[in-house]
Amino acid sequence: MEFDIRPAHLEDAAGLAEILIQIGWFSALKDETPEQTRQRVARHLQMCLQDDSHTLYVAAEVRTGRLLGYVAVHWLPYLILSAPEGYVSELFVHPQTRGAGVGLRLLESVQEEALRRGCCRLSLLNFRNRESYQRGFYAKAGWEERPNAANFVYLVTEKT
Ligand SMILES: CC(C)(COP(=O)(O)OP(=O)(O)OC[C@H]1O[C@@H](n2cnc3c(N)ncnc32)[C@H](O)[C@@H]1OP(=O)(O)O)[C@@H](O)C(=O)NCCC(=O)NCCS
Asked: So where are the chain's domains?
């Protein structure tokens, strides 16, 4: 299948929401109708498109324009680093399009932009129970796992 990689625009919100709905993993989506998901994705996409601190690339089928996958990266000017780091927060390919080279091309687009921006590194979180981890998707693309790093989250809730 022939596809192009291009920067996302606001009109992509419905196609991006459709990919997430089809993947079906995400707890936030379970409490939403498809229309609410589309609206939320549009709101978040709009925030990302407001300045050049974020980049979203989409893969679109050439024949139909249908979205096949996307990647989001956030450019972080750490004070402790010699140059900014790019944090890849999302890389998702439509379940029916996996294994056709889309994910790798999206990742390469981010790597190329990181080079153009003079970044010193890229980072991301990959759960070990995911097929992508078990099949060594990132390791094969040249990424190194940091064995001594722990990943923490703090859930922000109102105290009663
Ligand atoms: C992981 C993912 C982005 C890879 O994209 P893709 O377009 O399917 O993969 P590509 O065809 O570009 O690359 C091929 C490599 O990806 C991996 N891969 C291929 N199909 C895959 C699948 N169904 N699931 C997971 N990884 C897969 C393999 O390592 C493969 O290398 P190989 O052909 O040498 O075995 C995609 O499968 C996906 O969206 N998975 C679900 C979401 C996810 O895990 N995202 C990344 C974690 S943040």
From this structure: 3-140
Residue nearest to atom 29 of ligand 1 (CA): 137
Ligand 1 centre distance from Cα of residue 85 (Å): 23
pLDDT, tens only, 40-82: 999 999 999 999 999 999 999 999 999 999 999 999 999 999 9
Is the C-beta atom of 6 inside 6 A of ligand 1? no
By most ligand atoms within 8 Å of CB, the mutation choice from 20, 88, 93, 128 for ligand 1 is 93
This prediction's pTM: 0.95
CA distances from 61 to 93, 100, 110 (A): 12, 12, 19
Superfamily for 3-140? Gcn5-related N-acetyltransferase (GNAT) (3.40.630.30)
Cβ–ligand 1 contact at 100 (below 6 Å): yes
Write the DSSP assignment of 77-104 as a string of letters.
Answer: --TTSSS-EEEEEEEEE-GGGTTSSHHH
88 closest CA partner among 148, 154, 141: 141
